[in-house]
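<context>
A single protein, sequence plus fold
<entry> Chain with its tokenised backbone below
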Amino acid sequence: MNLREFKSLLASQGGKHFRLRLPDGSPVPVSFHVTEVGHVKKTFIDCGGTLRSAEACQLQVWVGEDVDHRIEAKKAAAILEKAKTFLPDESIPVEIEYEDRVISQYTIEGHEVREHAVVLVLGHKHTDCLAKERCGVPEPVNAGNARAAQTSCCSGSGCC
């Protein structure tokens, strides 16, 4: 979900509670706070030597000891509004940073609008090789991809 979509969702659900659901289906405790809104920029060289960049709007959420705290969609929208001076590009993706056992970053895979709440469905971020063709990483072989199986370096003997 990009920043424009996120802001639109929050605006359309103003009086509802704002909730988060982790990839395993468990909820982030409802007393969470949005402690930071950041514009994260990353410039890097991939393993094939190509210079790349990425950016995102990152919301850090934290669960404090005030178990009665609740955040509504309109409050989350107001927090984002304060960050508009350094988040000029609303097409950037929104990520959620949350500490459970470790600090993790999550994508927003979707949302559910319920009677009293809007729930963001979080997904795992994954690593990947960005220069597969340059580094010689073969395409994945699966039963539904016969062409890849025919061009694979493996003979099916299990040697590789």
Remarks:
- DSSP finds four helices and six strands in the chain.
- Residues 3-151 form one domain.
- Strands lie at 17-21, 32-45, 51-63, 94-99, 103-113, 117-124.
